[in-house]
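Lab notebook, bench 4. The sequencing result for the construct came back, and we need a structural model before the next group meeting so we can plan mutations. Quick request posted to the team channel:

Model the 3D structure of this chain.
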Amino acid sequence: MITDGVVPSLHVDYKSTRIKQYHKEGRVLRTETTINNTRDFGIGKLLRNLPALRQVGFQANRRLLDVQKISHDCSIGEDAFDKIVRPLEVEGQRASALRFGDQRVQALFAVLVVFSLQPRGFNNREIRVLLTQLLGLDAAGYPISRMTYDLRRLRLHGVIERIPHSHRYQLTPDGLRIALFFSRTYARLLRPKLAEIMPQSRPIEAPLRRAFDRLNSEIDACCEAQRLAA
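Done. Here's the predicted structure in token form:
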């Protein structure tokens, strides 16, 4: 529980050892480990054991920080994103990247969301029909071989999986989340909000546009003040 005006601290106890974590003067996060009994770790009390004791304390601090880093998704989200948007190789099979923002990739994810509620999944022909409509193409403009290629890279990236003993596919649990997130953030957040803040667009009364305009004004004012000072 965080209380206004009170500096929070975290305490971890193990036998006679304590790890204390707190914000030092509101500036940095400080982690302190105090070992009151070296025998808790099978280490003697002589001075020559100090390096081994120091290593124990360092490892304890590092493990705590690693757990906190993972809980804040500093690496898991990045790994999940990289797994999709970068090329990969799975058991000797290569798959090209599914780059965020690419028209074909975004259309694939949007169509996959449509099929997410189909208990029988989908096949090459069914997804190809919707995909060509979304891309504004006819069937000849998106041949079966290209659709097969896309299904293959979606499968290798873990977005879809083949239904056993069939030529049908279904979204994986991770694939559904990725398809929803990629398609929704691109269509509902990235494109409209970029249109709001770009200087080429007509002036509109939007909070994000006003914030960027103020930022530009402040930067210009700072630059002007520095030139005057010089």
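The mean pLDDT is 87.
Will bring this to the meeting.
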